[in-house]
């Protein structure tokens, strides 16, 4: 009995699941703005509370859709329960600052000890070393003579 075709099928399925599984981890689909030099990941004792602002301006907390007032009410109750819990704000890159500013400022007023803005990493950017300073000689001025 030849098991080679069975092994091939199993390996193809394994590769498919390895590619698809990380994409299933995201909750609300947003296009995050990117940065060039991200900070290293830090471990915390309590998982931060994640708030997502979708491109349509909707607010999501733990995959539940809320309007702004209900989201702030939930954040207030979560902060009262766990005062040291941090907040992570995810917003679509196509949103303007004004669209994100309202929930950011109201969450600050709730009293979270820190609010982090989640961004994606921009790929393909290489920081060029600073150009060396080139000392330029002063231009020669013709002498007023003949």
Please name the defining characteristics of this protein.
5-stranded mixed sheet; elongated; alpha/beta; Nucleotidyltransferase, domain 5; two-stranded parallel ribbon; 146 residues; 31% helix
Strand content bin: 15-25%
Structural class: alpha/beta
Give the rounded overall mean pLDDT: 76
Helical content (DSSP H or I, runs of 4+): 25-40%
Termini separation comes to 106 Å
Largest sheet properties: 5 strands, mixed
CATH topology of the domain at 26-121: Nucleotidyltransferase, domain 5
How many distinct helices?
Answer: 3
Question: Could you characterize the architecture of this molecule?
Answer:
- With 146 residues, the chain is α/β, with parallel strands linked by helices.
- It has a domain at 26-121: 2-Layer Sandwich (Nucleotidyltransferase, domain 5), CATH 3.30.420.270.
- The chain is 31% helix and 16% strand.
- The chain has a 5-stranded mixed beta sheet. A two-stranded parallel ribbon has the order 1-7.
- The protein is elongated, with a radius of gyration of 26 Å.
- The N and C termini lie far apart (106 Å).
- The model is unreliable at 128-139 (pLDDT under 50).
